[in-house]
Amino acid sequence: MKILILNPNSSKEMTADIQRNAAAYANGAFEVKTLLTPGAPEFIDYYLDQALCAPGMIKNVYDNEAEYDAFIVACHCDPNIDLIKEITNKPVVGIGEASMKMASMLGHSFSVVSTGLHSVPNKEAVVRKYHLEGCLASVRAPKSEGCCGSDEALFMEAAKLAIEEDMAEVIVLGCAGMSGLDKKMSKALGVPVLDGVVCALIIAEGLVRAGLSTSKIRRYQGNR
Amino acid sequence: MKILILNPNSSKEMTADIQRNAAAYANGAFEVKTLLTPGAPEFIDYYLDQALCAPGMIKNVYDNEAEYDAFIVACHCDPNIDLIKEITNKPVVGIGEASMKMASMLGHSFSVVSTGLHSVPNKEAVVRKYHLEGCLASVRAPKSEGCCGSDEALFMEAAKLAIEEDMAEVIVLGCAGMSGLDKKMSKALGVPVLDGVVCALIIAEGLVRAGLSTSKIRRYQGNR
Amino acid sequence: MKILILNPNSSKEMTADIQRNAAAYANGAFEVKTLLTPGAPEFIDYYLDQALCAPGMIKNVYDNEAEYDAFIVACHCDPNIDLIKEITNKPVVGIGEASMKMASMLGHSFSVVSTGLHSVPNKEAVVRKYHLEGCLASVRAPKSEGCCGSDEALFMEAAKLAIEEDMAEVIVLGCAGMSGLDKKMSKALGVPVLDGVVCALIIAEGLVRAGLSTSKIRRYQGNR
Amino acid sequence: MKILILNPNSSKEMTADIQRNAAAYANGAFEVKTLLTPGAPEFIDYYLDQALCAPGMIKNVYDNEAEYDAFIVACHCDPNIDLIKEITNKPVVGIGEASMKMASMLGHSFSVVSTGLHSVPNKEAVVRKYHLEGCLASVRAPKSEGCCGSDEALFMEAAKLAIEEDMAEVIVLGCAGMSGLDKKMSKALGVPVLDGVVCALIIAEGLVRAGLSTSKIRRYQGNR
Amino acid sequence: MKILILNPNSSKEMTADIQRNAAAYANGAFEVKTLLTPGAPEFIDYYLDQALCAPGMIKNVYDNEAEYDAFIVACHCDPNIDLIKEITNKPVVGIGEASMKMASMLGHSFSVVSTGLHSVPNKEAVVRKYHLEGCLASVRAPKSEGCCGSDEALFMEAAKLAIEEDMAEVIVLGCAGMSGLDKKMSKALGVPVLDGVVCALIIAEGLVRAGLSTSKIRRYQGNR
Amino acid sequence: MKILILNPNSSKEMTADIQRNAAAYANGAFEVKTLLTPGAPEFIDYYLDQALCAPGMIKNVYDNEAEYDAFIVACHCDPNIDLIKEITNKPVVGIGEASMKMASMLGHSFSVVSTGLHSVPNKEAVVRKYHLEGCLASVRAPKSEGCCGSDEALFMEAAKLAIEEDMAEVIVLGCAGMSGLDKKMSKALGVPVLDGVVCALIIAEGLVRAGLSTSKIRRYQGNR
């Protein structure tokens, strides 16, 4: 089995981080490869960024569809996920959707730790898109902006407040760039902390093995 | 006052129809101009189409921002509307949002008449995005596909069923290409029938005159 | 075009304020006249007040229906709005509904600034009636009661807390008596601040020009 | 204990029916008296009717507050219920609220049988006001208008469809004028059928015995 | 009329408290008896406890079905309530459901005072089960664990915060063991405070007198 | 890795079917074993059945906790799932929750095919418990009762209606006894058909490999 991770941005460093994290989970059980998106911004922060990475993501899907069994979109706002589900018959999993739906299975409510205050409403819109507002304790961001792995203490503080003030029982890391913080934070906080890439790999691997993929009957029918 | 209507597709015919319809409403009270989107598909039907029209729409906004007082996105699924709201400080109005929110002011519930069955769930997702599911009677489409002005009888039949079976009290035309059918259908059906371009012009003109625009504090802050 | 603003209370001063505010927006584009409600209380604060102003509002509608093209109900709890929509075929717009639905188009969520703590749940009930709870950040009132224009500092403080604590992106003035504060507050707060009378005029003028009015098929059918 | 039933309309016949029905339930355990509303229409069908009965209902409450222990509003749309709760410290129970909340305790979902198609959306608005839409199977009305006791067969047919098509498990009679049909319909349909007056008496008697009444802290504070 | 109160736990002391409280409300109008549950834990705190009390509750129902007219489940999480409604044709009332639905009739929103922080999400799940989240101000628990009557000051403090911080207008006592605190707390807090046993008796007595019981058509059909 | 499947009923035949189905999915990648529940009914159809299988399920968990890495509850109503999550620190996955949440990732909305009409509301209650009502097209059951693998044609017919009438895009098999029908039905229907046991194995295997389990901070804390 071969799973392709689409990193919607063009950062080589973040791509390498995601790949390292994914390979550690796969651990040889399946092949996994992470591609950066040519022509995309270095970081996906705004709606504009999401549009700018679409052409490169589409190209990456078309170029690799024959070879890979499933696609993962590795940015927590799941940019262009409906479009990717539409243009391929292979399973497509967003790290936002996968991690938040798995979070809802592990506790009464979850909080998303986001990178900056301005992205809190955008995350809330994504939560609502997935019909998850009933499971959401909060979206929390550090007061000062910052991304990603380098700002561990800020994210830890936001997560602590989510657990204590908002009654979150599970923490979801709200950025692919936070990859690798999950275990450390979970140990410190005493609750499950979910990394989106790991969650998406769980779902993607399972779908492939079970022979399942996106329903093509209406919403994701595409132009075929 | 000058309002620019962004037609997300590249159809000259539909652009002319929208312009005719818009000018009739404006009736000299303000200037209105409709631009097609260079590089976009002829018709916006799929998520892929929405991505393909983004670059041209962005260019149209940047090229015309200085000259125009407000922008309208004239496709009923409001493609790239969050992005357009983000990249300009001028008011931005989608014909989907405007028509459905105005419909909710004119009766207990509304139905959207869409062009094809495969787009029904996509429309429902848009309705939900705008928190309007509580006002929605149904999204109805003719059994056989077809767009747009040429298929009047099909849309009329769908609207009738929406009123009788789904208890809709207001009908929203779910495609910019249906422009011009509103008055005829309203007369035949005995309920208000809303054309999205007209509704968006109402909101856009009002916002300009009142000096109002998108909040830039968080969700639509953009990279400035 | 002639629009009649029904001020549900009997305060001459507030009626004059509303008229001044409305005329400034209309700016000659259409005629606008504000009527106080004979027999109504000086201020609409309680459910009892809403009932006491009904007979005078009904009379004002009946007496002026032939002459005017649209009616506006100019109290932010939209008293008797269903009834007014029912008894006339002309468009009827409440300043509560118009301002809150327009607020939902300008940002991720809005807060209503109300005059007193005891009215917070009543406002929440109105928000829910309009299916807007998903767009509501909060209803905020100053700790100490007070209305209206004279208490600018209190409302400003409540709005600031709404933006910072409740993540509101748009502020809605929750009382017709706050008319005139919108621009000053918007400038100070850096987010759109909506005056209900202005918003209702936008919608009412548009409905008249578009030839639209309340659906009479069921909920607002009336006894005709 | 003395309970006063406010019949919001002015029909002597319906008042007598309600009184007979109420006395049968009370069966000597407490006193019950039904008052028609002076100046109100013969039947409460429209929002206008609800406004027209307010002055008489207010007078009936003020005139009898000292003597009675609780008030019941005996029209299924609970006209002016917020106002009555506001102007008295005694418990106030609407037959709509009481019957629908009790229905939600007796089965998975309930349907309301209403008198006419035009009132279906109005009932739905009341259901929503009480946060009961999640327990509602449907509001059903006979195709042809008709009220009330005389149209038993029509209501029975509507109830049957609600049970079979809409999966209702409990039926709520949607008009005080249907009083007396509950047992007969329940026997024929095999599900509980709730009469609003009976349900309101259950709640009102209980509140009086338990020394409970409306919270006066904010929403129903009133002008005291 | 004879009503049987099923205390799901095996505490003799709490059973006696409930019986005393219930008898005081009944005041001779009907017979009431409280049974502890053989084989159940001393206190129902966890999901495990709810399962462990099921066999004894079932036995208590079967043994007493012929003799009693209605059953009350006297633990605020309503353990096994669906099951009890299923296995008997007699009315079954949970103190959680009864008290929270009655609370929703007495004010804009209610808060539940619970015994410990760990039970807050569990209570929220019960609130949601009954479709009451729209009426809920909050579930509040003292910071330090403690149950029940002995910790009056802690519960009072939690209730005060609910009223002031969460805008609750009605307080619901979230544990049968708090029986007897309602009047004292209500007097001190100035809002209605509901005891679940009293509320359940109101509903149960009314159902019996009205000849009503659980719908047996589908959800609570049982194996008969 | 060793996963234990708890079949809540005591049917040897259904246990063998589940085991065969599970082993086929596992395909050697991990160990899987299915246990019937001693003392449980042959089939879990009623709330009573759910209570009767609790003691045996608890015993099975306690007896095997040391040896197994995760537990699956293999009845589509997820009986006693909160309790099982509470009493063990190992991951616990219900086939209902897993299959419905995965269904929500594969299409716009899903329908559950259930075994009988009387269980439709019970399934709806489970859907609501998991906050999935926004993703639900319908719960459909054959008109005539019947379970499980032997009634393939009935389930197929129900699924067809769900897709055509209710606009479902994904089908969820609503009974562990339908195991093995998924691929055949999917082929015939042209949409994904989900088997709960397969979905639960996907999630359980992933949780174990990722080192994740139920949050023990509040709701599922248990008595430790």
Write a structural description.
The structure is a homohexamer of 224-residue chains. By secondary structure, chain A is of the alpha/beta class. The first copy, chain A, folds into two domains: 2-94 and 198-210, Rossmann fold; 97-196, Rossmann fold, CATH 3.40.50.12500. The first copy, chain A, is 42% helix and 14% strand. The first copy, chain A, has nine helices and eight strands. Chain A has helices at residues 12-26, 47-52, 54-64, 81-87, 95-103, 120-129, 152-165, 182-189, 196-210; strands at residues 2-6, 31-35, 70-73, 92-94, 110-113, 136-140, 170-173, 193-194. In chain A, the strands form two sheets. A four-stranded parallel beta sheet of chain A has the order 2-1-3-4, with helices on both faces. A four-stranded parallel beta sheet of chain A has the order 6-5-7-8, with helices on both faces. In chain A, strand 3, helix 4 (81-87) and strand 4 (92-94) form a beta-alpha-beta unit. In chain A, helix 5 packs across helix 9. The longest helix of chain A has 15 residues, at 12-26. Chain A is globular and about 45 Å long. The two termini of chain A are 26 Å apart. Chains A and F meet through helix 5 and helix 9 of A and helix 5 and helix 9 of F.
